[in-house]
Amino acid sequence: MAQFTLSPSADIDTTAAQEADQISGLRAGEDIPGCHPVTISSDFKVYKAIAGQKFDGISSPRQAFAGQPVTVFGLGVRFKATDTILDGSKLYGLASTAGVFDDAATTKVFRPVSRYDLAIISLGATSV
Questions:
Q1: Is the dihedral of CA 100, 101, 104, 107 positive or negative?
Q2: Would you say residue 127 has pLDDT above 70?
Q3: How is the chain split among helix, strand and coil, in percent rounded to 5?
Q4: What is the mean pLDDT of residues 91-119?
Q5: pLDDT at 50 over 60
Q6: Cβ–Cβ contacts within 10 Å for residue 25, how many?
Q7: Rounded distance between C-alpha atoms, residue 75 and residue 82, angstroms
Q8: Phi first, then psi: what are they for 115, rounded to 5°?
Q9: 92-126 burial, b for 16+ CB within 10 Å, e for fewer?
Q10: 3-state secondary structure of 17
Q11: How much is the CA Rg of the chain, to the nearest whole Å?
């Protein structure tokens, strides 16, 4: 089992982001770091996602404070996720701690596409 935390220098691949699904016009329900896995609530506010919650994508690259606008990027988006070298043979999911990725998670939503980058391969409900 390997876990890693979202890099403080996380960033979206702008080429992939142009083609990826995105939802704009949302507001952050809490402070959200850039490129953080998120869930969209029934009142259309964006919150940090953890295992066991619905995963709707990652937040835009800039940090959003509670109440500020935030864009959510979905399937296919590639982003720098870690400063630790990823195992290219594993898929990753969300851990029970916000901003932590885990290869032991039951629901896999990311696949490595380089040594430090992940791509979103699945959205929806997650489990621990």
A1: positive
A2: no
A3: 5, 40, 55
A4: 94
A5: yes
A6: 8
A7: 19
A8: -65, -30
A9: bbbbeebbbbbbebebbbbbbbeebbbbbeeeeeb
A10: helix
A11: 13
Q: Residue 69 is encoded by which pair of tokens?
A: 């606008």
Would the pLDDT of 125 be above 90? no
* Residue 115 DSSP symbol: S
Name, in order, each residue with C-beta under 8 angstroms of 108's C-beta and a sequence gap of 6 or more: 91, 92, 93, 121, 122
CA–CA distance, 23 with 70 (Å, rounded to integer): 9
What would the DSSP string read from start to end of 24-67?
EEEEESS-B-TT-EEEE-TTSEEEE--TTSEE-EEE-SS-B-TT
Six-digit token string for 43:
């009142």
pTM recorded for the entire structure: 0.91
